[in-house]
Structure formats: structure tokens, C-alpha cells
Amino acid sequence: MENIDKNLVDELDRLEKIKKDAEDKINNIKAEIVNIAKLENKELIFGTHKMCSIKPYNKVIYPEDKTILTNLIKSQGLYGDLSMLNYSRITSKINKKELSPEIINLVRIEKDFRLVLIDRGI
């Protein structure tokens, strides 16, 4: 039984390393695709069998300690509408500038890119 346990743990370790290496490579390739898209002002890049759509969007990064943000939302009577920090709703309101600058100043907004592979049918 110990041999099976050891083999399973070793196999999991090996696969986790492969997964991490693959994720690192994917992230590097995505960064290169975004750089090319920005340099060439493109929203589509074509591969042999797929095309990649590159769309910029505002990525809202919330503070780690959400107490101040939660208290501000409550004090401004928005808690019921945004209920328990519904990130999707808050992000939408932040991007539309529908919240007070006090709340918006608690988050960081970064430009990020969504990449979607689309089958070319080839």
C-alpha cells in the first residue's frame, strides 16, 4: 500500500509541475499576443485553426481589507443594492462611475485584456 501511496504522490507532484509550467507558458504567450495586438492596433490575430480575439477591459482590484469599502457602501445607503459586496455589480457601477469617488478611490483599476480563441472552421 505504501508503494501505491508514494507513486500517487510522486505522480501528483510531477503533474502539478507540468501544470505550473504550462500555465506559465500560457501566460507568457498571452502577454506576447496582447503586446502584438497593442503594437499593431489589432483586435483579432489569426492562427492556423483558430483566431484570437483581444478585447481591452477595466479590471477592478479591490482592497484586501474590505471593511472600509463595506462601511462606506452601507453609510451611503447602497448596501441593499450591492448586497454583500457583489463584485459583479460593484465593478459595473465603478466602471460606469455610478459610485462616489470615495468608494472608487478605494480600488485600483488596471487595463487588462480578455483573450478568446474562436474556431475558424478550417
Describe this structure as you would to a colleague.
With 122 residues, this protein is an alpha+beta fold. It has one domain. It has five helices and three strands. Strands 1-2-3 form a three-stranded antiparallel beta sheet, with helices on both faces. Strand 1 and strand 2 form a beta hairpin. The protein is flat, with a radius of gyration of 21 Å. The N and C termini lie far apart (49 Å).
Instruction: State the domain count.
Output: 1
State Rg.
Answer: 21 Å
Major sheet size, sense and barrel closure: 3 strands, antiparallel
| Helical content class | 40-55%
Spatial strand arrangement across the major sheet:
1-2-3
Uncertain residue ranges: none
Beginning-to-end CA distance, first to last residue: 49 Å
Tally the helices.
5
What integer is the average pLDDT?
A: 90
Global outline: flat
Tell me the strand percentage band.
15-25%
| Structure summary, number of beta strands | 3
Topology order in helix (H) and strand (E) letters: HEEHHHHE
Give the structural class.
Answer: alpha+beta
Describe how the helices and strands are arranged.
Blueprint: H1 2-40, E1 44-46, E2 50-61, H2 67-75, H3 79-82, H4 87-95, H5 101-104, E3 108-119
Antiparallel strand pairs: 1-2, 2-3
